[in-house]
From TrEMBL, chain A:
Gene3D superfamilies: Glycogen Phosphorylase B. The lineage of its organism: Eukaryota, Fungi, Dikarya, Ascomycota, Pezizomycotina. It comes from Ascobolus immersus RN42. It holds the Pfam family Glycos_transf_1. Its EC number is 2.4.1.198. It comes from the Eukaryota. The chain crosses the membrane at residues 392-415. Keywords: Glycosyltransferase, GPI-anchor biosynthesis, Membrane, Transferase, Transmembrane, Transmembrane helix. PANTHER family: N-ACETYLGLUCOSAMINYL-PHOSPHATIDYLINOSITOL BIOSYNTHETIC PROTEIN, PHOSPHATIDYLINOSITOL N-ACETYLGLUCOSAMINYLTRANSFERASE SUBUNIT A. Residues 42-131 form the PIGA GPI anchor biosynthesis domain. Residues 192-329 form the Glycosyl transferase family domain. One of its GO terms (cellular component) is glycosylphosphatidylinositol-N-acetylglucosaminyltransferase (GPI-GnT) complex. InterPro entries: Glyco_trans_1, PIG-A/GPI3, PIGA_GPI_anchor_biosynthesis. This is Phosphatidylinositol N-acetylglucosaminyltransferase GPI3 subunit. GO terms for molecular function: phosphatidylinositol N-acetylglucosaminyltransferase activity.
TrEMBL record, chain B:
Pathway: Glycolipid biosynthesis; glycosylphosphatidylinositol-anchor biosynthesis. GO terms for molecular function: glycosyltransferase activity. It comes from Ascobolus immersus RN42. One of its GO terms (biological process) is GPI anchor biosynthetic process. The lineage of its organism: Eukaryota, Fungi, Dikarya, Ascomycota, Pezizomycotina. Its main location: membrane. Residues 180-215 have a biased composition (Low complexity). This is Phosphatidylinositol N-acetylglucosaminyltransferase. Pfam families: GPI2 (PF06432).
Amino acid sequence: MPYNIAMCSDFFYPQPGGVESHMYQLSSKLIDRGHRVIIITHSYGDRTGVRYLTNGLKVYYVPFAVIYRESTLPTVFSFFPIFRNIILREKIDIVHGHASLSSLCHEAILHARTMGLRTCFTDHSLFGFADAASILTNKLLKFTLSDVDHVICVSHTCKENTVLRAALDPTTVSVIPNAVVAENFRPDPTRASPKNITIVVISRLFYNKGTDLLVAAIPRICSIYPTVRFIVAGSGPKAIDLEQMIEKHQLQDRVEMLGPIRHEEVRDVMVRGHIYLHPSLTEAFGTVIVEAASCGLYVVCTRVGGIPEVLPSHMTVFARPEEDDLVNATCKAITAIRRGSVQTGKFHDQVKQMYSWTDVAMRTERVYDMILKRENDNLLERLKKYYGCGIWAGKLFVICVVVDYLIWVALCLIWPEKTIDKARLWPRKKRVDDVPETGGIVMGSVDIGSKVVPVVGQATSSGVEPVGVMTRDGLATRTSVEREIATE
Amino acid sequence: MDNTSASPPYHTEVRSSSAQPSRSRHRRRKPWRKLLWVKQNYPDNWVDSSFLNQLQRNINVKPYDFWTLVADSTVITQHVSSVVIFVTTFIAIYMDKVGPVTVAGGSSVLTVLGYWVWDLGWETREKEERRLGEEDHAHLHIPSIHSRASSPGPGTPRKRSTPTPTRTSLELPKSHSRRSSNLSRPPSPTHSVTTPTITTTPDCTSSSSDAADATPVPPEARYGERTQRRLDTAKSAGLIYCTLLGLSPILKSLTESISPDSIWAMATWLFLANCLAFDYSSGVDVKFPASLSTNAAIMASVVLASRLPTTTHVFSLVLFSIQVFGLSPMFRRYLRHISWNLHVTTTIVLIGCAATGLGLVVGWGWAGVYVLVLVGGVMGGCSWWLMWLQRYKNEIHGPWDPARPVIRRQWGD
């Protein structure tokens, strides 16, 4: 049975980032599987109202005040009227929130539960337990997640973290990893220098990305191997340390600083290297190392967070987050590449087998199936769950939920459901089960804003993988079109 | 849905690998692995028996020792007592029980004494510095390029001076940073001399020349430096003195339009802010500790002083407050640094003074209550309370914590 799903998060395009692309990819794959998906986010600049993306993915940009790093002001109740309107208009069954720092997502889940809808939450990041900000976020998370139907985490470490932070029953938490669009990260062995070994680093240059380790390790590796080159892409407050290091050790011709790059340029930078170095200090999943492996790079990374779960050992060299160990690991990787003992040519196909968004969508769908089968709690049972959150917090949460319920009753009286327009359905695609056999070519069409363009797709066991779009200039790949739409 | 039927069913019990009925079914399966890249025949919400086995609790917690806590709380006692001393002195002046000049004069004499002790300490510190430096050179044979190129920052010498047996590692960085700072400009504690600087300066110089003679190799530059330092101190003390003198009439009329009630309330809050924001933890090497705290106290004393009748009163009280809140914390820190016995003595003297002041101004009953609350409540009670609260300590660590990078510093800066 196809579902009507609303993805809610503060973070969505045009802002680039991991959560954003996760939501976009998952939504478009769910649409491919026959569901209807809308995305609810806050407005970005003058981008307010409704927009359509590829595949009829509808995005509601709700006007809201942004307080910090694109998070909206947590007002608890003010989002409810417009949220109810959208939900009823789109006949939503499941509200799926993303990212624990997004207050929009927390509010959406609370209101959805008040309205008796099914909810799901995906956690994308790891948090500590010690500092004040974490304690506050954890309490908020506990509030929202006391009554969520199911939680999805991107790695097993992330699951352990979330279970502890929100005091959840671990069986209500599923692990569904991120994925990469392997087609966008094809290797290109001709681009890498045949003489020198090039080490690529692509990361925002922040403390928690391990830039200090990088600054310490680069000169040592350069002095051990005189022919090794570095390419560093990304910007951030630690860029200055890196530049100072380059000047101090006179490595200007060996370390290339590219500055900030766009996500679609990542592949072109990656294929210039042989080894990808990832010195991060904390990471829930680390999509970038999967992208690097998909581009055929040998990965050197620190053994932190969820990283050890992500790639098999023949693609990676692990290091402790220590300068000496990182240098050792990199040296090991350089030796292995020189000797030719790693088959980097096969990485792309292997990664393609491991991670695909279609697989993620299938597993998410399974979660939806399960939560819709569950018995729905009545208000009293919900209040019991909230009450158990703590001596003071529990009472406060109960008050919030009761007020929310009363607001809902009032909203139902002021704007009865029948006065709200129902959105016209986007012409549904055929369900992929009808495609006869794997490997067949499927022709179809997609309506992008004003014009209808012909699409070429390939049937796989899990659905139709769109290959590209026919344009006047020939076959454009799917990603180039998405990119155009996403960035406008 | 056909996909769902193919996939393993979602399991509903926690740790079902240990549950009896499902065991036979699970035995055929490969053991679950904590990996994402491999497709496993387990549901996505599988909870393995290894779940949370990397969780560590309270690994960094070191138990507190009661007497150590009591000893550490003496700094709080000292500070609270000095605030009480200041307030009771103000009340005494306000009620005309004590002459303002007596107070300012007495405290200035104490300040000069304090400076003298501090200055003597400087000699010993310098001597020790030199001895340490020579020892280092003799023992370690640091290449000359290294030692010359690296500026005597706190990072580099720390490593070199570790083998010296005489001092603990905690004290070392402080003494080194002192060396580096006295090359340029004397640090702030040198402002300790206030009123009668001009008369005392020659004494200090003579005593210092004696000390300089006693040292094995007294370089001429060092002697000049020391005199220079004292002259600087005298200059800044004189400057503060004159400024205060000039400002006093203004300060006196500063709050004429404000009612005394507001002033008392304001002073109370400011003193509270002073006590709360005071930097109790730092050692001697801090240059300007807790400026918020010092500013609050000085402001409180200014508003209090503006209630007094004459310019002399105002001048004396503000001068006294600078000595109590600006200079005495530095001296107390220094005393604690050099000798534990002196520190304890100071604490007892301060509590005694505060209690006496309270007894004379408010009543001896209150003085007793004060001593009881401070010694029993703050030192004993709070220490015990902190230890008791440790039972609720629940520190959680695991693989999700941001790692602490380990970096060897010789390549970086």
